[in-house]
Structures are given as C-alpha cells and as structure tokens.
Amino acid sequence: MLDLRSVNLESLNSATKYPSILTFHERGPKQGTLVEEATVFEGNVLLTEKVDGAGTRIVVFSNGEYVICSREELLYARGDLIANPKDGVVEALRPVADALWTPGGGGTQVLVLYLEVYGGKIGRNSGQYTGQDQVGVRLFDAAMVPGDVLSRTPAEASSWREHGGQTFFTEEELQAVSARQGIALTPRLGTIPASQVPTGIEEMHAFLVSRLPATRVALDAEAGHRPEGIVLRAEDRTVIAKARLKDYENTLRRRSGL
C-alpha cells in the first residue's frame, strides 16, 4: 500500500511541483516590460482569474495521509507536532486538508491539489483582497501522480515532471474535485474562441480591464479590489499563459515616456 513512509520525500516534493506558466506576451530586456510577441492559442480558451498569493500544494494519499507544501518545499504532514510557519500556509490549509475526502483502499497514486492562499499578510498585494487580514483559499488545478515515481531518485522524479509526466485534470474533472472537496475554484471568467484573444499589448490591456475590472475573490468590504490578472488555458491544456495587469500598465507607461 502506498503511504507517506514508503516514498522518497525529496522525490515527492519534486514530482508534485507545479510547472511554471509563461507570460502571454514575452518579457522584454527591461524589467516589467513586454514585447509584441504573443502566445498562440487554437480552439477554445478558458479564462480564469489569477489570484496573487502563495502558490501551495496538498498531496493526498488514499489512506488519508497528506502533506502540505509551499511552491518549493514540504511544510507539514498530517500528525506532525511542529509545522513550518512559512507565510501562514499551514495554518490556512490544515483545516482544508483535515476535511478532505479520500477514497480509502490501497491506491497506487496520490492526488495533488494546487491552491492559492491569499489575503492576510501574504505578499505586497494582500490588501487588494482584504482590509481585515482575512485569509482565503482557492483551488486552481489538480493532478494525479503515480506512486512509483515517488520511489525514484529526486533527479529521476524531476526529469519525469519536466518531461510532462504529470496528469492534470480536465476542467470538468477539476469542477468535480472542487465540488466533492468543498474547495472553491479560482473564478471562471468564461470560455472564448482563440480568435477573440487579443494579440497586441494595448488590446490585451483593454481586454484585462473589461473582463476583470475588479477581483472576484475579495474577502471583505475593506479590500482594495484591484485584480492581478487572468490565466488563459487551452481546453486541451497544451497552452497555458498568464497576463498580469501590472505588466501591461508598466509597458504602456514606458512607451508613453511617463
């Protein structure tokens, strides 16, 4: 039976990390500026709000064991007496993890939930989500990782991940996980044909402002409500990109000489 004691923890950490997401427009030589080289999409494109917080993971075993992780490191396993206090992630996610539904039995895979913990004092933009230091949690992705990968060397697990080994959930599957586990998803802003995705910097800036004039995950009335941006995802997940409002504002400001 696959359990926490039977896996290589360094390999578990490596195999369950979330891949980097490229910016929709390529970054230029000057920090914070973009160039007119846009990501190409085909088919339909799902739009979701990009929430600005701490990217985290909960790795769930079928026997109910779990590990809470930041973007880069393991922070806490179920039953630990001492938790890594990094960014308040464990404090926010432990109640979520304790309430997770697990299938039981001798499962040979682990479920990885990718979540954004935001608000509180997490990051420079936390005040856009709360004026009372409240903390929120949103699910933005999920994947299954085979147990045999977790017994490989860390280098082998890393290579497996970097070569597309992770099996991510479809949007329909992700919606089902969200409902079953009782964890709200990052806001869905709609699905549009790729032909309607703007490719110019000015046009994308206008698109962001019109599609997401204010964050949809504010935690209280005192929040600033300024959004971070939008994540664009092809339905088959072959292309994923992020468009941050601040990047477009900085680029257009420099173009105008201000």
Describe the model.
This protein has one domain (4-255): D-amino Acid Aminotransferase, Chain A, domain 1 (2-Layer Sandwich), CATH 3.30.470.30. 23% of the residues lie in helices and 29% in strands. The chain has helices at residues 9-15, 89-98, 154-162, 171-181, 201-211, 245-255, and strands at residues 22-23, 25-27, 34-38, 44-50, 54-60, 66-70, 74-77, 109-119, 135-146, 167-168, 188-193, 229-234, 240-244. The strands form 3 sheets. It has a 6-stranded antiparallel beta sheet, sandwiched between helices.
CATH topology (fold) name = D-amino Acid Aminotransferase, Chain A, domain 1
What about the largest sheet? 6 strands, antiparallel
* General form: globular
Q: Unreliable stretches, pLDDT < 50, 5 or more residues?
A: none
Q: Using DSSP, what is the number of strands?
A: 13
Number of domains as seen in the coordinates: 1
The span between the termini is 62 Å
